[in-house]
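Why should sequence recovery work at all? Because a backbone constrains its sequence more than one might expect. Tight turns favour small or flexible residues, buried strands favour hydrophobic ones, and helices have their own preferences. The token representation captures these environments compactly. In the example below, the structure is given first.
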């Protein structure tokens, strides 16, 4: 098989989820709907939090940051897929593909870090309530987000720059709906040992440490809750942490499911379908989880909807 240098590569071909042409309009409509629901849902969360002074707390600051990251995460993959289906052109340029690899790694890693930061926030709020305003001050909250962003950027750039050293074969078909790092490495004809070692090492650190932080935080939270004499206090704590636990379970559960499917399922197309869960479905469901299980968010949404209805009524009255 002929080897070509990365500078000679014009484009990759994203094969998508299926070869069936009859299913393409259905897939286009489905993913467009999921994309619009995700963007609008997360924008509503950001708007509700920013417009309600009662929600200007560390927990909701991190939630609004997570919502913005979810918009960026799904925007890194779905629009390109929709363009390819609409134009019936599966090609993506080499640089666009690497930018997509970098974006997916960046926002996926940032989501991981933000979930850990939110778990630590709940730990401080429940286990050290008197020290909470001092510890989780606005400057420290912004610092935590910036550190998460810097770590995620370093993680994404490290993997992306390592891809630049690879030479590729002339067979450049990616059996996926976006440029995933693991699939790109399989197309390389040069040695990818260093890349694979980096994936396992860096993933163990950048994914393992935040996940362990979440586990340790909730072990302390459960321990504190069990010592509470009031059942009402226990219910309040679990209702506060319930939404976050659901999102954590969804994010890590789908990610682990994709890893298991790639290890035991030989079909690369089936792996691509499994990847939809962590790269699209999770971001779409997050707004529903936080809005349906959180009384403060429900109240904020009600205020925003009333304000929007009033604004529309005034505009229609003026006409």
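From this structural description, the recovered sequence reads:
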């Amino acid at each position: 098989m002929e080897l070509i240098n990365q500078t000679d590569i014009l484009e990759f071909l994203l094969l998508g989820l299926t070869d069936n042409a009859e299913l393409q309009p259905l897939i286009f409509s489905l993913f467009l709907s999921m994309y619009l629901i995700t963007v609008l849902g997360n924008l509503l969360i950001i708007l509700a939090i920013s417009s309600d002074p009662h929600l200007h707390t560390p927990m909701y600051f991190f939630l609004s940051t997570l919502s913005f990251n979810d918009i960026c995460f799904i925007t890194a993959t779905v629009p390109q897929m929709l363009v390819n289906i609409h134009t019936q052109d599966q090609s993506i340029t080499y640089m666009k593909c690497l930018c997509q690899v970098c974006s997916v790694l960046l926002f996926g890693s940032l989501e991981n870090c933000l979930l850990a930061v939110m778990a630590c926030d709940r730990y401080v709020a429940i286990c050290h309530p008197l020290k909470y305003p001092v510890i989780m001050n606005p400057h420290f909250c912004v610092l935590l987000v910036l550190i998460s962003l810097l770590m995620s950027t370093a993680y994404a750039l490290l993997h992306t720059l390592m891809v630049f050293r690879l030479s590729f074969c002339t067979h450049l078909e990616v059996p996926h709906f976006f440029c995933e790092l693991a699939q790109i490495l399989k197309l390389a004809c040069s040695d990818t040992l260093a890349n694979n070692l980096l994936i396992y090492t860096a993933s163990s650190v950048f994914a393992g440490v935040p996940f362990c932080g979440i586990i340790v935080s909730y072990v302390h939270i459960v321990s504190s809750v069990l010592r509470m004499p009031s059942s009402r206090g226990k219910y309040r704590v679990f209702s506060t942490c319930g939404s976050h636990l659901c999102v954590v379970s969804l994010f890590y559960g789908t990610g682990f499911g994709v890893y298991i499917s790639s290890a035991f399922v030989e079909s690369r197309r089936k792996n691509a379908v499994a990847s939809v869960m962590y790269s699209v479905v999770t971001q779409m469901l997050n707004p529903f989880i936080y809005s349906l299980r959180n009384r403060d968010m429900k109240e904020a949404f009600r205020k925003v909807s009333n304000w929007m209805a009033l604004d529309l009524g005034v505009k229609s009255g003026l006409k």
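A few observations help interpret the result. The longest helix spans residues 94-127.
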